Every structure is written in C-alpha cells, then in structure tokens.
Amino acid sequence: MTSRIKTVLVIGGTTGIGEQLVRRFHALGKKVIVTGRNQASLTALAQELGGLETRQFDITDFSTLPSHAADILKAFPNLDTVLINAGIQKSFSFFDPSSIAPGEVEREIAANLTAPTLLIQAFAPHLLSLATKGTPATLFVTSSTLGLIPMGLWPNYSATKAGIHALALTLRQQIAFAGEEAKKNFNVVEIVPPYVDTGLDKEHREATNAAQGEHAFPPMPLQEYIDQFFKTLEDVEADGSLRKEIGVGTGALAVQTWRDSFGEVYKQFGMAT
C-alpha cells in the first residue's frame, strides 16, 4: 500500500532494481532520497527527476554510516520509509582460490550483510519512534530467492542474503516487544527478488550459465519485475498492513514454502514473523 509511504530513502538506488524503485516511487509523487557511491550517477538521476534528493556515500565505510544517517534524519525528520537495497554478487568455488580475487569474499559480506545490519541499527529507532506515535513506518530490506534457496554457484551471496532474511524476522520479533502501536504501524518488508536482468551478475553470467547447462534459465526483465513488485505492494494483509514479504516469480514460491513450513513453527512458539 503505497499510500502509507510519504518520504522514502532508497539506499543503493543508482542502478538495477534500486534505480527503478526510485523512478517508480518518484513517479507516484513520493519524496525520494537516494544514496549511492557514484556522484555522477546521482547527479544525472537528480537532473532527470525533479525534486529528487541525493546523498553520496559508501555503505562499506562503516565508520561514517552513523553520521550519514544522522544527517539524513536531521534533513528529513518526517522520513517514514527506508529501503536498503545495495549489494554485490560474486560467483566462485571454495576449492579454486583463483576463482575470486583476494578480499572479495570480505567485501561481499561487508556490502550485503554487515552494512545492512548497521543501517538498520541506525534508522530503526527513528522509525519505531514514528510508529509508536501513530505514524506508519516501513523498513524494506532486499534479500534474494538465493537467501531461501541457496545455490553453490553463488555461495557467499546466498549466505549473506540468508542473513538478511534472518534480520527481517528478528526485527519483527523485536518490534512485537515494543507494544501494540509499534506492531500496528511499523512494517518490516523483506523484498525477495527472483533472478532479474540487472547488472548484478555481469561479471559471471556467461560462466554460470555454462555451468548450469540445460538447467540455466533466463532472468526476468527488469521492468516486468518492477511492475509485479508494485502490484504485490498494494496487496495488503487482512489488517491493512503491508505484506511481510514481496516475492515475485521464484521469490514468491520460496516465500510461500518458507511460510508453510518454518513459519508454522514460529506460530507454535507464539513468535512474530
């Protein structure tokens, strides 16, 4: 339900899915702030989309994240939605040291899991404060179908996205401890994309397709994914809250399978998921 979103921060929004989300939210009349590492890309996007706000920083520079978050919240005290989307993907074999450059494993973990964790830590208190005062607040975190159905071609990526899935679950449980207003107004939404045609896998697409052979399948066109994303976003829960996951294609299958299995275990524990 996009009507609950007034001001949205998209972290990692200058390419791929992130950029298209920025464009669609902007077209819907939302106040959009976008971050990225590349100032030229941010400037070009701002010149095209009137009123777009930009902030340039690297999410893997952990020492500066708190100050960047504080600056954003000072400039936009009514920020009600944060979408954490930035990430990288590598394909390698644990048995072939030459298949990945030194330091790339650490860099993938830093971008895909450590940085999102620190960003949640930086923005969650603000969003909770809004929610407890009756203002709808939303945190989107982007995982992947590979976070629920890991594959050996992308071992570290799969593991980091499984970590994002766990963060979404545990954050919802912590919100449940914060009281009824928080539970009602603070939605945590896990974005679970399928294989989408972006530049995420450009370094290794040919090699991974060759490795899969006849089982290789084509990516979903980016605009098709965005259309389905926003259609699903409007399909709210019975209580009017946003869906806990936005899964498209194989992402929807993975989410439903998880809900029908481990989701039922959580219900037995009486825990929010």
Structure description:
The protein is an alpha/beta fold and 273 residues long. The chain has a single domain (2-269), classed as Rossmann fold, CATH 3.40.50. Helices cover 49% and strands 13% of the residues. The chain is built from 11 helices and 7 strands. The protein has helices at residues 16-27, 39-48, 65-75, 104-132, 145-148, 155-176, 180-185, 205-212, 222-233, 250-260, 262-269; strands spanning 7-11, 31-36, 53-56, 81-84, 137-142, 186-192, 245-247. It has a 7-stranded parallel beta sheet, sandwiched between helices. α3 packs parallel to α4 (104-132) and α4 (104-132) runs parallel beside α6. The longest helix has 29 residues, at 104-132. The protein is globular and about 55 Å long. The two termini are 19 Å apart. Putative oxidoreductase. This is NAD(P)-binding protein. It holds the Pfam family adh_short. Keywords: NADP, Oxidoreductase.
